[in-house]
């Protein structure tokens, strides 16, 4: 823990059998939300939030401000910030807000894509640390706070989602509903800040989205072949037609067969531009070998979760989507492609 009280959240390990949660009475199971992991410290009637990298993100989510001190003093919570769309978490909606640090822009984003803080753990209450208290007891205290009531009732952006006894049933239900997956936790587990513990197990489902190509990187051994593409979403839909600015979400290097890569590269060469369409600019070393292009081509991406920085994990390019215009990428329906890979 840093001198300012900031700590890193406890992390889960992958399930021993991919796609299958652990079973037994010592486990309970929660929905794995597709959002931004964040700890929230409540003091003096206000909340300070920071992400997994211990970066303060309070200004990015003004709708999570608290009025009054009904939670008491010196409370520390763990949860996930999600942007719901049609009742389901939307990664494109939360991605546009991850790195906002300007209060005015954050306020506009809060109106356009409001977030909910799904609180699933209580680490401190009234200045008393609860890290060594078993999870089942921490959860009982958390539910006793009636968090949604003290932060605004049923419409509150602060919610405590339920837990479930049957992990396999929850895994099947979350897959059907298009949710990210399941997290299983031992009810006896203590909280280990920053540790990746086998007492918490994650069972993610792969998900897909449509994104816009903003640049391409050649193969290392064959500089005239397409190695990967940078993809993103419009940074600001209101100004995209004028500025053409993308928010970066991934560099995708696998998925298309060579013949389709060659066809895609021939098109990308025709729309090259001297400057990057991304804001912020990607920071990976491959940027030095990137050729930027006009953000006009959409592709369907399959991915497994989201990194702390907001980029897609293990992205795979599944299809070129000439039927989608860039402005509609974040909300475009997905093609029912074969999922055998």
Please describe what this structure looks like:
This protein has helices at 91-95, 103-112, 135-144, 147-150, 167-177, 240-243, 258-268, and strands spanning 11-14, 27-32, 36-43, 46-51, 75-82, 84-85, 88-89, 116-125, 128-129, 158-159, 181-186, 196-204, 207-218, 226-234, 246-252, 291-292, 298-303, 316-320. The protein is α+β, with helices and mostly antiparallel strands and 341 residues long. It is built from 7 helices and 18 strands. The chain has 2 domains: 11-204, 2-Layer Sandwich (D-amino Acid Aminotransferase, Chain A, domain 1); 207-331, OB fold (Dihydrolipoamide Acetyltransferase, E2P) (Beta Barrel). Strands 3, 4, 5, 8, 9 and 10 form a 6-stranded mixed beta sheet that branches. Strands 13, 14, 15, 16, 17 and 18 form a 6-stranded antiparallel beta sheet that branches. Strands 1-12-11-2 form a 4-stranded mixed beta sheet. It is globular. It starts with 10 loop residues before the first strand and ends in a 21-residue tail after the last strand.
């Amino acid at each position: 823990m840093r001198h300012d009280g900031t700590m890193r959240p406890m992390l889960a390990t992958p399930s021993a059998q991919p796609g299958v949660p652990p079973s037994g009475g010592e486990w309970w199971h929660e929905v794995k939300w597709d959002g931004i992991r964040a700890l929230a410290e409540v003091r003096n009637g206000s909340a300070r939030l920071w992400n997994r990298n211990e970066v303060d993100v309070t200004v990015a989510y003004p709708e999570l401000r608290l009025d009054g001190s009904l939670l008491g003093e010196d409370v520390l919570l763990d949860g996930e910030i999600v942007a719901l769309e049609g009742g389901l978490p939307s990664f494109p909606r939360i991605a546009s807000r991850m790195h906002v640090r300007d209060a005015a822009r954050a306020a506009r984003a809060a109106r356009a894509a409001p977030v909910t803080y799904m609180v699933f753990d209580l680490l401190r209450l009234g200045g008393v640390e609860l890290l060594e208290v078993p999870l089942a007891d921490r959860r009982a205290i958390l539910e006793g706070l009636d968090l949604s009531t003290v932060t605004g009732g049923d419409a509150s952006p602060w919610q405590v989602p339920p837990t479930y006894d049957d992990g396999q049933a929850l895994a099947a239900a979350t897959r059907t509903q298009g949710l990210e997956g399941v997290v299983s936790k031992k009810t006896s587990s203590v909280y280990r800040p920053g540790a990746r513990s086998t007492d918490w197990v994650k069972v993610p489902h792969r998900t897909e989205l449509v994104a816009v190509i903003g640049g391409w990187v050649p193969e290392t051994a064959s500089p005239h072949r397409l190695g990967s593409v940078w993809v993103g979403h419009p940074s600001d839909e209101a100004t995209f037609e004028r500025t053409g600015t993308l928010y970066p979400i991934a560099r995708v290097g696998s998925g298309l067969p060579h013949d389709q890569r060659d066809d895609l590269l021939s098109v990308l060469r025709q729309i090259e531009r001297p400057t990057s369409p991304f804001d912020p600019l990607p920071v990976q070393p491959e940027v030095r070998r990137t050729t930027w292009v006009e953000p006009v081509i959409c592709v369907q991406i399959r991915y497994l979760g989201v990194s702390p920085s907001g980029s897609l994990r293990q992205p795979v390019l599944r299809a070129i989507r000439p039927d989608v215009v860039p402005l509609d990428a974040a909300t475009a329906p997905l093609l029912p492609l074969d999922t055998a890979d």
